[in-house]
Amino acid sequence: MVTITALDVADDDVYAGFHALYARSIDTQLDPPWEFRELRLKLAGDEYGEALVLVAVDAGEPVGGAWAELPLKDNVQNAFATIFVAPEHRRRGIGSALWRELSPALRDRGRTIVAGEAVRRVDETESGSARFAENLGFRVDLVNAVRELPLPAEPPAAPARDGYRLVAWRGLAPEQWREEYAHLRSLITQEAPLGDVPWENEYWDAARLELEARQWQESGRAAQIVAAVSPHGALVGHTQLIVPDASDEVYQWDTLVLADHRGHGLGLSLKAAAMREAADLLDGRRRITTWNAASNVPMIAVNEALGYRLIGYATEYAIDLPRS
């Protein structure tokens, strides 16, 4: 008989079993599983967000799990859920049972919209995770394209022009830029293409940047940041390369150029500069992976100019929870 209970990520043995199951259940190389330390920090929560974590156990062995991330400073009506089941235990209703436990717990915490993601390779027409989401009643909200850049790769020459300049750092932003950078980080939601789910701007301040830098260090991640400075001296764009020390993967995270400063080639300049600044971190790595909305034609053009190739799609799903 399968039982579902809350999981305490502070319990070393329990968490180790949970992570091992999770890592084994992610059977696509498009979106590799979070590493052991990374996921533990993610699920432990902090003053900016918390997580609900569930594990399904059969005959004393974990067979499936779920978690939901709940922002605490913004988007307090939304949650982002992940559900997984061991390959040999699929099609037994375990994933659905996990959702039946998770959804009322989220509703009790005031969440009215739950989002999730289903990934498929470019040569697939559908995926098991997409069928699962749709069977639960989730609707398609946004389709993201997944691209990879095989390494080593030489970025094109793309210096900043028109009076703009670039600044670079690793980890925590220098104090002179911290307040401006926190503001810039808060704008990605309103500046990036979105679906129908109402996502508010994220809450960022200098304290959160400091916490993020500590968490990167604790989880074994290096973060290479490059930012664009306008002719008037303001931060107007940035990009992030995230490099875990426990794998050969590299992730291209947020890239943002404010609307009033587009048309100057800053997207390409930022990404090319980040690769050069992070050359030592990229040495020996297999690839850089990036996601962006499939409708974001300008960013797709930047990625293709850098040599990225399309390898799959990550479809964002959403469902409305009935009010309690």
TrEMBL record:
Domain N-acetyltransferase: 2-154, 182-324
Keywords tagged on the record: Acyltransferase, Transferase
CDD domains xrefs: NAT_SF
Name of one Pfam family that matches: Acetyltransf_1
Listed GO MF terms: acyltransferase activity, transferring groups other than amino-acyl groups
InterPro entries assigned: Acyl_CoA_acyltransferase, GNAT_dom, YpeA/RimI_acetyltransf
Transferase listed as a keyword: yes
PANTHER family found in the cross-reference section: ACETYLTRANSFERASE
Protein name per the record: GNAT family N-acetyltransferase
Originating organism: Aeromicrobium phragmitis
